[in-house]
């Protein structure tokens, strides 16, 4: 393995335990994304990898060699921050070249590498401009260029797109994916945005309260979440959940019973157990079908978002969101009948919230 983190912990002097027993192996050239809500420990972990934070306990290896005590330069990592951290008085050319200039690299070599990097990033026409004359997306490309030109083996990116508007984020996502494809560098990327994680990552590390919740490909996290937190974090809109107790193979929601006997072969073993019932908004169908559970709910609100509509429904105390084709948008304050295919039903343990 190229990068190995073994039982990594971060405990601050005040006793705050920010990262708990973090274990991960990263292959050379892999694009790994750490995702989770604010304060979950993802940026702290990235900073420990960068050498900007001390590791309280555990072992950090690069290419099989212990790197706990190495400084950022010795680790041969390049980092792109949320703030662009460009020198305002320097041109784009000088900002990109800065690291090589400090190292005393020959000017001809610097020029060749700056021009090559600028071409990859589409910055050739902006090399003589100052950062203030650039858009947010262009400034972020300059920051990436400054990291890229150093030709290190590991790129670390800490929420690099959070200061951009929605359109710029989409553009920069595809550009970052393209840069990774061209350079083949090992990339570790931190974000709280699950869309960024799903579109960029080879594998995603989902974190909560300093603990890893699940590691897997975007497809694995979406289709086989390990627990309620991962299921609710991955997907837009998030998965719908309802709590209930299994009785005679059914769960009661509001005034209706949901028969689980067809969907779950282990129904008898679940008898009397408190469970969390889950289904994704986009998994429902409006036409009757076999091998599905039928549900009825009142439509509270609809949001037409172009090719699809979010439908907010309620049944007693239970609320949920359905995602339907815009042509099938129902009327508000009407009862809606819909079907959840058996294979789209998730059950989680009511106590541990782990998948059943």
Average residue-wise pLDDT: 91
Query: Quick one: CATH class of the largest domain?
Result: Alpha Beta
Low-pLDDT runs: none
Overall geometric form: elongated
How many domains would you count in the coordinates?
A: 2
Number of helices: 8
Distance between the termini: 32 Å
Range of helix content: 10-25%
The CATH homologous superfamily of the largest domain corresponds to: P-loop containing nucleotide triphosphate hydrolases
| CATH topology value of the largest domain | Rossmann fold
What is the strand arrangement across the widest sheet?
Answer: 6-7-8-3-9-10
Note the beta-strand portion.
Answer: 25-35%
Give the tally of β-strands. 19
SSE topology string: EEEHEEEHHHEHEHEEHHEEEEEEEEE
Main sheet: strands, sense, barrel: 6 strands, mixed
Q: Could you say which structural class the secondary elements and strand pairing correspond to?
A: alpha+beta
The assigned CATH architecture of the largest domain is 3-Layer(aba) Sandwich
Query: Radius of gyration over alpha carbons?
Result: 25 Å
